[in-house]
Every structure is written in structure tokens, then in C-alpha cells.
Amino acid sequence: MNKKRFLTTCTTVAAFLLIAVLALTACKGGKTEKEASATADEEEEMMDPDDDSFFGNYRNYFKTEEPKEVTVKTAKEFIKALKSNRHIIIPHVETLELTEAIDELVDEGELFEYDRSYSQKGVYYNDEYDGKSLILVGLKNLFIEGTAEEGAHLEVTPRYAEVIYLKDCSNVVLCNLTMGHTDAGDCSGDVVYAEGSSNIIVDKCSLYGCGVNGLQADHSENLLLRNSEFYGCSDCGIYIYSTDDVTVKGCKIYDNMSGVSVGEYCKDIIFDHCTFEDNHGQLFRCWSEIRVKNSSIEHHNGDDADNVRFSNCDVNMDYRDSDNYADVEEDYEE
């Protein structure tokens, strides 16, 4: 082989190798994207509430140790079972009225008032305007499940009390529960309140008013609300403030004064396959951007929806012509 042919051959081989390297890099990039999608699908599959191994899958998702399983039949047993690394099973549909049980445990010296200055991780009570409420502080790996077909029912009497107050908690699952207050009307207590908490999942639950908000999240992150309903609340079905990574999937938000409120300093807030109907005030009060996709919105108060991006939604609101999406402002449609 002469020198000229040798150089030509080397150039051809080098070009071939360069093309191969570029193709391999592109394939790796595509594979990475597919892997990311597959990972998301795997996580979704792991969190399938119809799977018999639902709680086992959540343990894997949270990477937690095996929690101790405790079955409770009374409100007092339920409160005393609230600890880290617990799977609390409520097997019947009779209402667990928590207020009387809280009072009894306080009188018996088994439940103490929460003091931010010195209280350690544990379960305490807050002294509200019209009664006492529970506050769970720093608990992790807590699973509360109603196992009857109709679910379990948790209720409190004071309208200024939360039913479930999670402060600095992580890896908490509330599944197949109905929660609210005994008396309807104005109140300042949320049904579920997550403050400074992470990895909170509300699945197959009904959160009802009286409750100023069905669920409030404040300075928290990574919340999943799915297959649940939020209704009858004196302010919002869902209220989010200074909180990131909230996914609301397959939920129904209805018959509240307002549907959703999202305050400042929030990001990655997504509503997917949700239904909004029969809410009475402003449907979306949003100071941070949210995405609403694959959802049904029926609202007739003519309010705006600033900072809301709709995608593939069936929207019927008075301020827009649902048959002529060309008239919708740009930030309302992707």
C-alpha cells in the first residue's frame, strides 16, 4: 500500500470512528431520556393504590425500614399509636372522634402541650380557641390506612383545630380516610396541614369542610395528592405556600369557597386529570405559576386565572368561550 492510499484509509477510518462516537453519544442521550421516563413510570407503578403490595411499594419508594403494624379500634388507641415507623390500620368505618380522646389523654397525663422552644419529636396537643388539637412533630415513616371498603373516618369538634397537623414530618402516607370537622360553618382549622414537611402522600381520601382549607402545605416539599376529593371548605380545597414539587392527580375539588390558592415562592405545582366544579369564589388564586393538564374545569364566577397554564383541558369558565380557544390569552394555553 502506497503512502497516499494509507493516509486516505486512515482518514476514512478516523471519520468512521468519529461518526460512531457521535452516534453512540446520541444514543446514550436518548437512552438517558428513556431511562428517566421509565423511572417515572416505575415510580408511578410503585405507587398504584390498587396493588396488593401498596404500602410495601411506598416503603420501597421512600426507602424506609419495615414499619411496625398496629391495628386500632378507638380514637385513644389511634392517638397512642402515632409514632415514627408505624403502619396504623383502622379496620372499621365507625367515626373516630379525636377531640374527646385528646381531652382524656391530657387528663391522664399521657399527652402534653406543644411548646416550640423545647418540645422534642413526638405527638402533642395545641390549645386552640375552641378546644385542643393534635400536632405531630418530627415523625417519619408513618402510614395511616383505612382498610374497610368505605375507608375510615377521623373527625374533630373544634373548628379552630386541624384534624391532622404534620410539623417537620417526612414519609407520611394517609390512605382511604375521610377527615373533617363535626360542625360546618366558618373556621380557621385546616383538615390536613403540612408545615415544614416532605414526602407527604394523600391517597383515596376525602377532606371536607368545615375546614378552612382541605389541605394546606406551608414550607414543605414533595407532596402527592391523588384519587382524593376536597370539598365544602370555607376557603380553599387546596392551599399551597412556599412549597415545591406538588402533584395533584385524579382529584376532585368542588363546593369550596375557592378551588386552589398558590402563594409566592412555589414551583413545580401540577394538577393532572383533576375535576373542578361548583366552587363559589375565585377558582384559582395563584401568585406562582401552576400547570393544569388533562382536567375538567367548570366555573361560572367570571374570575381570572392568572399564572395558570392549561394543557389539554375541558374548560368552561364565563370569561372565555370554550368553543373558541383562539381567544384565550397566551399564558392560559400551551
Poorly predicted regions: 16-53, 320-334
Number of strands: 27
Mean of all residue-level pLDDT scores: 81
Cα end-to-end separation: 62 Å
Architecture overview:
The chain contains four helices and 27 strands. 38% of the residues are buried. It has 334 residues and is α/β, with parallel strands linked by helices. β1, α3 (75-81) and β2 (86-90) form a beta-alpha-beta unit. Strands 1-2-6-9-12-15-18-21-24-26 form a ten-stranded parallel sheet, with helices on one face. Strands 3-7-10-13-16-19-22-25-27 form a nine-stranded parallel sheet. The model is unreliable at 16-53 and 320-334 (pLDDT under 50).
Offer a concise description of the structure.
The chain has 334 residues and is α/β, with parallel strands linked by helices. The protein contains four helices and 27 strands.
